[in-house]
Amino acid sequence: MMGLKNPPKDLNYLKKILSYAEQPNNKSLKNGLEILLSTDLRYEKNIFKFPFLRIYGSLDILVSKKICKILDEKWPDSSSIVIEKAAHAPFISHKEKFCSIILKFIKSL
User: Which of 14, 19, 59, 86 suits a disulfide with 90, CB 3.0-4.6 Å?
Assistant: First the structure.
């Protein structure tokens, strides 16, 4: 919850739930990372046949907001929004803003 002075209560709840979960299988994690390393769909033409919205956090260190401009050009039928002071999980840290963005997008369809 980078950028937040007071992380939401949901974060503590999520940490508690995850503490009871089994540790992930190393083989599954390795396979998932391999997919991420070897698959790049950014340059596929017309990969999506429907309108879609991409939401980013300005403080995300996993998915840089720099990708917005690239994908805006590659996928002109999609929309992108950057939520300021949000990191990789804006649906947790900025849930009201996130939900209002989703609702506005749905209404625009």
Answer: 86
Alpha-carbon span 93 to 96, nearest angstrom:
9
Q: Tell me the β-bridge partners of 80.
A: 54
Is 89:63 a contact under the CB 8 Å cutoff? no
- Convert the chain into a string of H (helix), E (strand) and C (coil): CCCCCCCCHHHHHHHHHHHHCCCCCHHHHHHHHHHHHHCCCCCCCCCCCCCEEEEEECCCCCCCCCHHHHHHHHCCCEEEEEECCCCCCHHHHCHHHHHHHHHHHHHHC
CA 97 centroid distance within chain: 14
Which of left, alpha, beta for 3 (phi over 0: left; psi -120 to 50: alpha)? left
Could you identify the residue written with the tokens 């929004």?
A: 81
